[in-house]
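Researcher: Quick test of sequence recovery. Tokens follow.
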């Protein structure tokens, strides 16, 4: 036995040794991977900086991007001194991210890279709008090394210009917009999970698919209620049945839980060898400003907000804004869950510059008195940002996504985004929901639209049930709000919802299928709120008719319900009216009177006005069956009942006509929807000068008229006598002879110019004619040896030459006709000139 025990102990020790060796091998593999990636980090940084310098055009950047001011150089010296002290006191910590290179290769302090700017768009005044814009507008680039911060941090303007950047570039842009909008925002340098750093949302549920939790209001317990009937069933049998049901439910829950555990295990990501080492940058918003109740994180890649205790964020090295830089001195062994974000606490957060707006902790009274005796040193103010103000044009704000499109892959879903007016049908967003993780079987498709002429804002297609739901904004021609259907064919199952306030009949909803149609109303003067119509089958004769009213489905019954009219007594106010058309009956049910549990009813039996012999039928008591609540009241006379029946028969005709109008309206809406779907026209706002052609043409016309007016004003300002007055010298006292000489010189000069112009046109005309003749002679000599290409070239040349000759001939003839008129106009203008008029008035 002792030998067996010794053998068992030896086997256990060998197993433990094997386990220890396996664990050591795993640790060694992880260490080698980490060391290899650390070794490649410097090479990646160098390659990244070289590629960045070659890809960015720095020639047009301001001087502040290419050099440091004296104050910035002093700040860099303070940062180096701060880093030396930090490295001495905390040798185990990673180097601080203080002054990386910018796009011009110049070291810049990270706080001066933040450029707070308020944008003129209302959507960018809230944090969620800013985060969504940055997430949509920029393209994510991974860090050169996943475990070290980048060596280069471009300015927000350059990041926005090229629409790409890493997590640090994203964070600086978002932080600049948030601070400009009034938030207490900070850039954070820390560590996060692989999914956050790599923008991997394939295991996240799409936010558009998350259902908001409905808060159910507790049911009110009635003080007075009717007691339920006595239960005569066997309690033992009920207990046994409940026990069996509980066992079945427990088994089903256990099975479902096992399936969920298997699914979770299959969906669980592989272990990350760099867990806790991956560097990431995000944005922190502290509570206080802009009525923010609680501090939270924003991931700039996805625009999602997270609690400061979320498991995705594993640690923080430092935070900064445009005023100061803080180093986290708290232990992050449990991630960010136990961190305190009181930046005024110098024990937990070591600040770099004095004069921060964060108050320090209150000191004890004795230390406070000693502190007052000491001279407080004057802090170094943060230099102004070297970055130009962030400018986002209207076109860039609307386009957002690079090339106008962006695709995001979620768990069992794919979200696609487009810029407005990029698609001809106005599509701006599409969410495709899948059944499986591989995204091969489509379950549902949702599409969002903008600027459509038919006012359709959303379309939802269920691929399993083949049901399509279309939603419309207010402004549709028929007041349509929603349309649920399987096919666009008439007399099939469909539901139409309307904006009742825009319709005369107050129709709110219409539900239709092949056998019936239900209509719901609100806000009507006749208090009608519901109409139910039952249809029968068409006869063979009716199917061959062309007239739509005669070819309509036969109506079997019309049921109408009314709200209470307070101006009428309850026993005279109809609550329900049923027209039984085939049975030729009309049934009325009135509203209940106070203190009564039953309502009055009447049933009218319709008969023809005349019998078979042609005798007029008189109203009899058998034609009306009534039940009147309250036996003491007397029955109404036959004349009154006869008049009531006539009114009801007229109401029946009106109801039948309204049903026919409803069916006609359905057909018209279907026709309009088919035309709108085929056209897919988009509307352009009158304020959108880039896309509105009419406004653009008006603006161009106005600009052209203004340009012509300015040109005309310049021509008027030119003095046509100035060259001749200079030749004459002093003209303060002009004689009559000088005025005549000035006139003659001006006219002679103008005459020579007209002659020179005519000679120039004539010379060009003769030159073109001679060249054409030479070409024709060449063609006559070489006609037999020419190829088809040479003949085509010759014909093309002749056509062009004839066109030029014709134009020159027209210009020459026109010049000959206009020259005498221009000469006479100039002579009249000289005689009317105020400087010559008094001398030339006798020579006109």
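Model:
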């Amino acid at each position: 036995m002792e030998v067996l025990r010794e053998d068992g102990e030896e086997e256990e020790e060998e197993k433990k040794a094997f386990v220890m060796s396996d664990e050591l091998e795993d640790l060694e593999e992880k260490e080698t991977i980490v060391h290899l990636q650390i070794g490649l980090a410097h090479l990646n940084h160098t390659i990244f900086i070289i590629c960045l310098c070659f890809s960015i055009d720095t020639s047009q950047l301001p001087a502040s991007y290419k050099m440091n001011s004296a104050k910035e150089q002093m700040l860099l010296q303070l940062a180096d001194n701060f880093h030396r002290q930090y490295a001495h006191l905390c040798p185990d910590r990673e180097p601080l991210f203080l002054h990386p290179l910018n796009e011009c290769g110049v070291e810049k302090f990270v706080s001066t890279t933040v450029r707070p700017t308020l944008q003129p768009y209302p959507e960018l005044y809230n944090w969620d709008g800013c985060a969504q814009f940055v997430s949509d507008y920029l393209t994510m680039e991974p860090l050169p090394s996943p475990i070290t911060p980048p060596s280069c941090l471009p300015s927000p303007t350059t990041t926005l210009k090229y629409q790409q950047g890493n997590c640090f570039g994203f964070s600086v842009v978002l932080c600049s917009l948030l601070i400009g909008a009034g938030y207490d925002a900070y850039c954070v340098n820390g560590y996060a999970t692989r999914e956050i750093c790599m923008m991997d949302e394939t295991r996240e549920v799409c936010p558009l698919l998350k259902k908001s939790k409905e808060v159910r209001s507790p049911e009110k317990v009635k003080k007075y209620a009717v007691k339920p009937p006595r239960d005569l069933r066997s309690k033992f049998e009920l207990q046994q049945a409940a026990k069996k049901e509980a066992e079945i439910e427990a088994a089903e829950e256990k099975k479902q839980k096992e399936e969920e555990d298997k699914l979770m295990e299959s969906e669980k990501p592989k272990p990350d060898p760099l867990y806790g080492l991956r560097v990431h940058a995000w944005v922190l918003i502290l509570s206080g400003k802009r009525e923010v109740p609680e501090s939270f994180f924003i991931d700039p890649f996805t625009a999602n907000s997270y609690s400061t205790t979320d498991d995705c964020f594993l640690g923080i090295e430092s935070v900064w804004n445009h005023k100061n830089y803080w180093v986290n001195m708290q232990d992050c062994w449990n991630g960010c869950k136990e961190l305190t974000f009181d930046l005024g606490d110098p024990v937990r957060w070591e600040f770099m510059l004095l004069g921060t707006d964060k108050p320090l902790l209150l000191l004890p009274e004795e230390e406070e008195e000693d502190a007052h005796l000491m001279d407080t040193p004057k802090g170094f103010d943060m230099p102004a940002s070297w970055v130009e103000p962030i400018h986002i044009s209207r076109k860039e704000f609307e386009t957002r996504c690079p090339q106008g499109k962006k695709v995001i892959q979620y768990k069992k879903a794919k979200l696609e985004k487009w810029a407005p007016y990029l698609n001809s049908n106005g599509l701006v967003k599409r969410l495709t929901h899948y059944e499986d993780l591989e995204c091969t079987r489509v379950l549902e498709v949702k599409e969002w639209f903008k600027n459509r002429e038919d006012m359709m804002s959303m379309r939802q297609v269920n691929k399993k049930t083949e049901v399509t739901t279309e939603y419309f904004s207010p402004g549709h021609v028929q007041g349509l709000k929603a349309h649920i259907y399987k096919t666009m064919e008439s007399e099939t199952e469909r539901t139409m919802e309307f904006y009742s306030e825009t319709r005369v009949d107050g129709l709110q909803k219409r539900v239709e299928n092949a056998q019936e149609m239900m209509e719901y109303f609100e806000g009507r003067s006749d208090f009608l709120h519901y109409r139910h119509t039952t249809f029968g089958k068409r006869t063979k004769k009716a199917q061959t008719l062309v007239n739509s009213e005669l070819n309509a489905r036969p109506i079997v019954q019309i049921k109408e319900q009314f709200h209470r009219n307070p101006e009428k007594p309850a026993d005279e106010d109809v609550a329900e009216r049923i027209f039984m058309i085939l049975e030729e009956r009309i049934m009325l049910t009135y509203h209940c009177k106070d203190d009564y549990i039953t309502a009055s009813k009447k049933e009218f039996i319709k008969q023809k006005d005349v019998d078979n012999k042609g005798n007029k039928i008189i109203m009899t008591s058998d034609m009306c069956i009534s039940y009147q609540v309250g036996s003491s009241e007397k029955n109404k006379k036959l004349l009154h009942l006869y008049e009531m029946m006539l009114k009801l028969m007229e109401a029946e005709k009106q109801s039948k006509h309204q049903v026919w109008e409803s069916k006609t309206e359905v057909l018209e809406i279907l026709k309009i929807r088919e035309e709108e779907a085929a056209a897919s026209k988009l509307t352009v706002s009158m304020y959108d000068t880039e896309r509105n052609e009419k406004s653009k043409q008006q603006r161009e016309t106005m600009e052209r008229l203004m340009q012509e007016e300015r040109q005309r004003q310049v021509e008027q300002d030119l003095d046509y006598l100035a060259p001749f007055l200079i030749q004459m010298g002093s003209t303060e006292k002009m004689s009559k002879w000088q005025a005549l000489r000035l006139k003659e010189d001006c006219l002679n000069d103008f005459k020579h110019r007209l002659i020179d112009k005519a000679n120039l046109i004539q010379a060009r005309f003769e030159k073109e004619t001679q060249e054409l003749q030479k070409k024709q002679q060449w063609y006559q000599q070489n006609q037999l040896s020419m190829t088809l290409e040479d003949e085509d070239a010759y014909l093309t040349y002749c056509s062009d030459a004839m066109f030029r000759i014709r134009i020159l001939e027209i210009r020459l003839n026109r010049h000959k006709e206009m020259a005498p008129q221009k000469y006479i106009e100039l002579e009249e203008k000289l005689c009317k000139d105020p400087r010559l008029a008094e001398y030339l008035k006798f020579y006109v």
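The CA atoms of residues 443 and 463 lie 5 Å apart.
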